[in-house]
Amino acid sequence: MNNKVFIIAELSANHGGKIEVAKETIRAAKQAGADAIKLQTYTADTITLDSDKPDFIIEGTIWEGRKLHDLYKEAHLPWDWHEELFQTAREEGLVCFSSPFDHSAVDFLEKLNTPMYKIASFEITDIPLIRYAASKGKPMIISTGVASYEDIELVVSACREEGNEDITILKCTSAYPTTLEDANLLTMQQIAKDFDVKVGLSDHTLGITAPVVATALGASVIEKHFILDKSIGGPDASFSLDVNEFSSMVDAVRKAEKALGEATYNLKDSQVKNKQFARSLYVAQDMKAGDVVTLENVRSVRPGFGLHPKHLHDILGKEVLCDLVKGTPFSLDYLKTSNE
To answer: CA 257, CA 249: separation in Å to the nearest integer?
Structure first.
């Protein structure tokens, strides 16, 4: 990652169960301006239990009433696709990496030479998993969708105790979709201050407003769910951006980066040139040698070729040496000195 915002297209479950759809989505992500494509590496059995007990039935979300095991069985990305998808991403010039959900997924991704790891929001309390991934010495990107201050403190400490200082914490709200009112993007800056880490946004809001605001607030990473076409359907389709929407987001983020620029008092060439239109002191009435400078015959006006206006009160009441025509830029050289 460099100084540009690192934009991640999250494939998630948006593959429709077809590897060709997944490949085409990767290619489309490149065309839409993404820097990376992120996968998820789990099976239904590595992420939950096949149980009909109430604890394993989803309530209060867009997946109301579904059994966790069934949802993850539908949504998971087959492991035997990974190598081909990594290769497709390389061919497109995209960074490809994944979220592991257990130790076996980390081992599997290591064999694929994953360049970094992403820890999903609901795994932020799985400190053994996080320690194991962090121990591989690769950049760690961690979402905070259900995290308290103490959760973030614990996960950052766990990474550092494994000797891993390359940590990016993503502000995230685990609501699908998230309202803008619940995004609380200012938290990013607080996280950066409190934990001395890089920050970014894993976004579940609709549209592109939140990523642009996050960029302005110092995000180094933006992650957004990406789908080739919403007609594919699937668990994540409703809060994913399609190709046109993602392209618009990338364009807006890149424009925001340009507008942010750098903190500097140095003037651009165009600003230096336009200083000619700033104020300066000019002769406002024809003057004769010996006339006294007043607020009527010398004024602060545009353009800026005359004496700086800060000198106005210093020259009031002093006599001029020579005749001066209205419109002459005033100069200290026109004033009599005490010796004259």
So the answer is: 12
The phi and psi torsions of 63 (rounded to 5 degrees) equal -105, 30
Split at pLDDT 50, 70, 90, the class of 184 is very high
Query: Is the overall model pTM greater than 0.70, yes or no?
Result: yes
Helix, coil or strand: residue 15: coil
Q: Which residues of 112-143 are buried (b: 16+ CB within 10 A; e: fewer)?
A: bebebbbbbbebbebbebbebbbebebbbbbb
Q: Is the peptide bond before 115 cis (omega within 30 degrees of 0)?
A: no
- Give the CA count within 13 Å in the CB-facing half-sphere of 291: 17
- Average pLDDT of the segment spanning 127-140: 98
Contacts of 276 (CB under 8 A, 6+ apart): 303, 304, 305
In tens, the pLDDT along 289-327 reads: 999 999 999 999 999 999 999 999 999 999 999 999 999
State whether residue 44 is helix, strand or coil.
helix
- Give domain 269-334's CATH architecture: Alpha-Beta Complex (3.90)
Q: Omega before 303 cis (within 30°)? A: yes
CATH 3.90.1210.10 region(s) of the chain?
A: 269-334
In angstroms, how far is the first alpha carbon of the chain from the final one? 68
Please check whether residue 91 is in contact with residue 117, taking contact to mean a CB–CB distance below 8 angstroms.
no
Residue ranges, comma separated, of all CATH 3.20.20.70 domains in the chain are 6-260
DSSP 3-state assignment of 311? Answer: helix
Q: Which CATH number fits domain 6-260: 3.40.50.300, 3.20.20.70, 3.30.420.10, 1.20.1250.20?
A: 3.20.20.70
